[in-house]
């Protein structure tokens, strides 16, 4: 599609399922989002009710109606690499089929997340006077390292562009509202001893044996389920790697265990760290990575009306997603999008036409 | 020395310290023992009171006097590789110096164990009518893999050559009798669980956490000290390596710990294995290597008179040595030799002349 270096034209008046297929046809693997970002920017600039901003390959378009509330609809433009399996349906261009009594679109990005992006684009075209001001965000580099994210970059460069009362990320949730997300952190606990020949072990001090206490703490730890704004977040505290020892006849002088703590959005990063310190009061904690949790924000008026428009019981999100970026910026956020997240990144990636249309209908109703 | 491919001549009437230096001059790193084995064989064949046997680079010489008791004096001909440090004293040929009021010989093999081999050779020449029949064993490949050992090979090929009531290995013990040795075995305990994403850890079952119980057993294990024939053997049960885990966001489905058990010679290999099974009744034991312990044999008449001749309190041997090979063949064995075992394999390897002579004197007195 991008072979002729021209910007593909996108028709935002299309049916959202048709637009999904058109977006899949524009290859946009991470680092190659420019043609799609150009097309999105060009299409949005044709709409006079939006002010359009560009930062790298991220496009932000805003209504400026002076409404009492502003909401964000956000989605990423990039996909993971194209499938390499010969004969796979998950290729560019999209393949449209009928399965039973449903129409379906196969191809890289159908689930994650060009269905959601298509819904954003159609809403941007249709909602000339939404009941809330809307900020549409189309960002790059979501599928690679966290610090490459275009969303994070715009938050640093132009935070005012993203100020809002509530945000919806149109990641695939099968049409359910998934609120907030657990935080996650990894840390290492190293135990120390004294090396010696294992034939004279009384001269040494076995560092592996000292992990007994650490592992016993983990084994008897009872992870909590924390209800936040009506959603039940299940936590977890788990060893993910352990190591120690140098040779078959040496008492080891160090051993380590790496632990992953997944914690509910009732706790700040600092509170979660404090909980870890209190759980292992005898040990030094070596932090490896820290990602804050995100509250679902379902207590905000915009959110309550959104949930009512969707008409389904919201669910908690366990994995860490970009809603946490919004949450850290003070904007409660949820995931809500068409497609099954379990198909994301697979060669079998696909989305049903009616799922894309249902998502569009719910958001349209909420904002009209 | 071996450069001209000729067999170096050894004069067994020399002072044992002088002969030690002469032996050091014949390089005999493992796999290169042939010139030294040839020299030893040639020198022994000149002694009509000995019957001499050759197996590879192992030489066995025996008195055949029909005595009521037979003892073995054994030592290995090979050394670890020569020091590579420039200017080191631990080189071929030997360097003889005076330190304070003592004469000392530096060079590879001085401690481990050409001092002991020199004592064997001088005794072989001097003891024409020993009070016990004597079997002198000079063997190859002690410093490499256990199954390459010339001693083990002769035990398999010609066990009758090594039949005896008692054996002395002239490994360096600083002139003390070190009796028997602890056995050693290694085994693995693997714990099993169920993998899952660490964000949904309740779906999985953490195999690392299950090591808590194994490590707690090790941590609270109180190793025994077992007195065997008057010698105190300290045991040990120690984790030597631990591992598990695949990625930062995966609940691991397996984890393992490798354990080394050092056990006193009151137990057979089978009894030691049974003790391990009873210590970890809930876990499958995967045996990795098994080496039996050796009793000191100090209850034998030959041994008692040997200890009296040495005139020092015997000590237990903790590390596994070739005495265990003799013990397994039904021959109680001890270590007794000149030099400090802590200098073995170092660039500073050396032995004092008077230590070699004292060892010779004690053995000569015992066998005369």
From TrEMBL, chains A, B:
Domain Peptidase M20 dimerisation, by residue range, is: 183-287
* Entry EC number(s): 3.5.1.18
Is-annotated flag, keyword Glycosyltransferase?
A: no
Molecular functions (GO terms): acetylornithine deacetylase activity; metal ion binding; succinyl-diaminopimelate desuccinylase activity
Q: Which InterPro entries match?
A: Bact_exopeptidase_dim_dom (IPR036264), Peptidase_M20 (IPR002933), Peptidase_M20_dimer (IPR011650), Peptidase_M20A (IPR050072), Succinyl-DAP_deSuclase_DapE (IPR010174)
Q: Which reaction does it catalyse?
A: N-succinyl-(2S,6S)-2,6-diaminopimelate + H2O = (2S,6S)-2,6-diaminopimelate + succinate
Subunit notes for this chain? Answer: Homodimer.
Q: What is this protein called?
A: Succinyl-diaminopimelate desuccinylase
* Organism expressing this protein natively: Kocuria tytonis
